[in-house]
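Input (structure):
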């Protein structure tokens, strides 16, 4: 569990681990330089929970924090939970038992439920949210997103970190999270795993993903990490999975175009015109659209006064 200033939800997240029916576990929380009272909360919790190991490090990002935890983990399987999310009590039992029986899979992930606040900012109790899930708790496989899915992951992330369990030996083979990626480090890892191994997706939602209204606004990154991850994977691993299924080069161009256009669009509306200019230019190398051309023209210095008026009018 990586944690950065997550004291508000830490206890609830940790309680969901302690409540697991599968108990042969160790809990490693890596505090990534928090400046709230997270460490106080963690040490108080550890006094009552021998399973909990706390590691405190200078802020280095979620990829480094997860890598720190992986390095000291002693188990045969690695699972991840962010400090504001929640696991179903049968998650580990279900997935560990599946991987023990289905040896051809290197990892097992699942669907999940979005845990959103109401108009007053309050969250439902996890048990109430799960009680609305009609599907029975089972290890039913989602065959559409299981097996050799590398080519599918070029299209979208699909795998959410809070649901996956990975055999520890896989990290020894392909390495850990890429610490150079500020975002998209998870997508990069899934692509590297899926290139060499099969993954299984269970239909039952084993976790809750908490949406936090506080983090609605996001700053524009200086690099398009999402596009970097996909382009790098295409250039180094190609367009096909090991079973021969893949995507066409035309489809790949559309995927990369959309990644560059979305980033450029975000840059434009944040008045980062230089970043937007280069990003729209990159998008147009993969696919030409009228909308991208118009935005590209608006990012030239000649039109910057017009662009600023457009943004001011619509923001």
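Output (sequence):
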């Amino acid at each position: 569990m990586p944690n950065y200033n997550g004291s508000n939800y830490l206890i609830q997240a940790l309680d969901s681990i302690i409540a697991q029916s599968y108990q042969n576990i160790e809990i490693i929380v890596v505090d990534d330089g928090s400046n709230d009272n997270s460490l106080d909360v963690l040490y108080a919790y550890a006094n009552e929970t021998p399973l909990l190991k706390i590691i405190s490090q200078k802020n280095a990002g979620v990829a480094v924090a997860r890598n720190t935890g992986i390095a000291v983990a002693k188990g045969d399987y690695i699972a991840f939970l962010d400090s504001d999310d929640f696991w179903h009590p049968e998650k580990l039992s279900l997935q560990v038992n599946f991987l023990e029986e289905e040896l051809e899979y290197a990892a097992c992930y699942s669907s999940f439920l979005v845990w959103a606040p109401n108009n007053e900012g309050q969250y439902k109790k996890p048990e109430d949210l799960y009680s609305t899930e009609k599907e029975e708790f089972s290890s039913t496989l989602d065959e559409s997103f299981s097996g050799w899915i590398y080519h599918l992951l070029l299209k979208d992330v699909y795998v959410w970190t809070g649901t996956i369990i990975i055999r520890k030996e896989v990290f020894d083979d392909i390495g850990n999270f890429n610490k150079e990626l500020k975002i998209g480090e998870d997508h990069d890892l899934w692509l590297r795993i899926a290139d060499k191994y099969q993954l299984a997706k269970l239909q039952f939602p084993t976790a809750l993903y908490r949406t936090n209204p506080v983090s609605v606004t996001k700053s524009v990154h200086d690099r398009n990490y999402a596009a970097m991850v996909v382009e790098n994977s295409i250039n180094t691993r190609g367009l096909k999975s090991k079973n021969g299924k893949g995507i066409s080069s035309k489809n790949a161009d559309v995927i990369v175009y959309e990644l560059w256009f979305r980033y450029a669009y975000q840059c434009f509306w944040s008045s980062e015109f230089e970043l937007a200019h280069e990003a729209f230019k990159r998008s147009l190398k993969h696919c030409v659209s009228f909308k991208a051309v118009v935005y590209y023209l608006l990012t030239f210095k000649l039109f910057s006064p017009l662009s600023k008026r457009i943004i001011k009018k619509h923001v």
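Notes: The CA atoms of residues 76 and 169 lie 8 Å apart. The radius of gyration is 21 Å.
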